[in-house]
Amino acid sequence: MNVTGDDVRSLALSLPETTEQFAWGMPIFKVSGKLFLTLPEGETSMAVRCPILDRDELVLAEPAKFWIAAHEAGNAWVRVYLSALDDREELTAIVTDSWRQAAPRALLDSP
């Protein structure tokens, strides 16, 4: 699958209360003011929230797809090469999971 930054942007902005801003030289996405996704490296990858144990397992299992930026090693974030994603379903699962980790409980509980 050939995923682009525009695909990620469109998906992220379709999620409730998501906004796009530009910071640190890249597009960033927040839900209710809380960061959940960035598009670094010229929008060829994305950084998403991911619990550290899960992140480490992902990187070990699929190093051609997932990696950890040195400055994020101590944080619950993982990078994903957009070109390595299998399909739209995988993209949706990754972005939505990151959004859920940042979204306020009230937003998650609303219909």
Automatic annotation (TrEMBL):
<dbReference type="InterPro" id="IPR038056">
    <property type="entry name" value="YjbR-like_sf"/>
</dbReference>
<keyword id="KW-0238">DNA-binding</keyword>
<dbReference type="InterPro" id="IPR058532">
    <property type="entry name" value="YjbR/MT2646/Rv2570-like"/>
</dbReference>
<dbReference type="GO" id="GO:0003677">
    <property type="term" value="F:DNA binding"/>
</dbReference>
<dbReference type="Pfam" id="PF04237">
    <property type="entry name" value="YjbR"/>
</dbReference>
<protein>
    <submittedName>
        <fullName>MmcQ/YjbR family DNA-binding protein</fullName>
    </submittedName>
</protein>
